[in-house]
Amino acid sequence: MSVKNEMLLLLLVIICIKYTYSWSYNPYCWLAECCNKDAIPGDINKLRKTLKDRVYGQHLVETVVDALAAHWSSHYKPSKALTLSFHGWAGSGKNYVSKFIAESLYKRGTKSKHVHHFIGRIHFPLEEHTEMYKENLYIWLKGNITNCAKQLFIFDQVDKMPANVLNAIKPIIDYRDVVDGVDYTKAIFIFLSNTGSGLINEYYEEQWNKGKKREELRLRDFENLIAQGAFNEEDHYIPFLPMQESHVIECIRDEFRQRGVMGPSPLHINEAFEFIQWGPDHSKLFSKTGCKRISAKVGVLVAKYYRPVNEGNDEL
């Protein structure tokens, strides 16, 4: 092969490598998670489709998709970190939606080193340690965002935290380009809470009794109810409506599908459905636990009725 042909071949190889690994020129990123487009694709279309296909009865969460798309838009630099506040009964989908956000924005989803999940009762259990929590939290946030601007922080059980812990992040999520030498504007904070869930349910039941369709309700109908007891630093309050019979059945079907059972027997759907407790006492309109306990029940049913014939027959 001539020198000219060798040079052309080498150039072709370099071009192929460039386009194959255009997400990173750092070989380290081929094996580990970096702060780049490959690790953080920010796939808004994936999120929109996932929420449409796998979240039931929560049309108001569509606002989340638009908020995220605007925040990480390549045509606009945000003036502050994005803060989302999810409110509703247990099992209404707050953690579910948070997981889908992480899985759509980050290649490694909830396992990404850029995704951080704090749980009130576990990470901030004692009122007397509030000042320590605040200091440690601020250091943790600053360190991670310094390393990579596009971080996702999920705070679960906000209503179970000592009242002043989140004051540590107020300077971070305010309208400032830089705080203590760090730009926090591309970070995302999601707060999950049961605060306001009773008011949300009461208001929804009132509207349902008046004949108003669920899909006709808008965010503005709930924002004042939620804001009364929220952190009050959020950009968007998202109410998660209580789950009714049709939504619970869809959750059951979805859990069967996730286990490879595309057409579960109506008898088995009903068997999972029988575990649901309903409230309030005067109407029995809503599932008291939403779809929270369905996964475990369906798992048992799949193991019982749909496991492969030869499963468990392997010799030890």
TrEMBL record:
Entry-linked Pfam families: Torsin
UniProt signal peptide: 1-22
Gene Ontology cellular component annotations, sorted alphabetically: cytoplasm; endomembrane system
Gene Ontology terms, MF aspect: ATP binding; ATP hydrolysis activity
Keyword flag tRNA processing: no
One of the GO biological process terms: cellular response to misfolded protein
InterPro entries reported in the protein's UniProt record: ClpA/B (IPR001270), P-loop_NTPase (IPR027417), Torsin (IPR010448)
Keywords noted in UniProt: Signal
Recorded superkingdom: Eukaryota
Sequence similarity: Belongs to the ClpA/ClpB family. Torsin subfamily.
PANTHER family: LD13476P-RELATED, TORSIN
Name under which the protein is recorded: Uncharacterized protein
